[in-house]
Design brief:
Layout (H helix, E strand, L loop, with lengths): L4 E4 L10 E3 L8 E4 L9 E5 L6 E4 L16 E9 L6 E4 L7 E7 L6 E4 L12
Parallel strand pairs: 1-3, 2-4, 3-5, 4-6, 5-7, 6-8, 7-9
Length: about 130
């Protein structure tokens, strides 16, 4: 696909949407996801996106536990960011991915910035 940018507004949650795999978007440069999105997604795959430069995810996304540190880990929830040679920035807000038990980041040699949550505050990203 020739899509270079994907922007998702706040609050997008569909119970039937349990996988988030963007491998078909080979020209994607920018991914932006708002707050409170994709609570039912079990697995996020950002793999082999050769043009991807930035990923920004709002707060309380990809989690069932919003604004709390009382979290139950789910061994079936995985985040995989791999083989994205141009990626420079990965940012996510507080509580996003809080109940995910796997965070795999590999082969992102241009990565300069990783921001998870807020400095000096409970953020609970990948809590377990």
């Amino acid at each position: 696909m020739d899509v270079t940018e994907i922007v998702v507004d706040d609050g997008l949650n569909e119970p039937d949407f349990t996988g988030f795999d963007l491998s078909g978007f080979s020209k994607l440069k920018r991914l932006e996801i708002g707050n409170d999105c994709f609570a039912y997604v079990e697995e996020v795959k950002l793999i082999g996106l050769n043009e991807l430069e930035s990923v920004e995810i709002g707060k309380n996304s990809f989690t069932k536990y919003k604004d709390t540190y009382h979290i139950t880990p789910d061994p079936n929830r995985h985040f995989c960011l791999k083989n994205c040679p141009k990626l420079k920035s990965l940012k996510m807000g507080c509580y996003s991915f809080s109940d995910y038990t796997v965070c795999a980041i590999e082969n992102v040699d241009a990565l300069e910035v990783i921001e998870m949550g807020d400095l000096n505050d409970w953020s609970c990203n990948f809590y377990y």
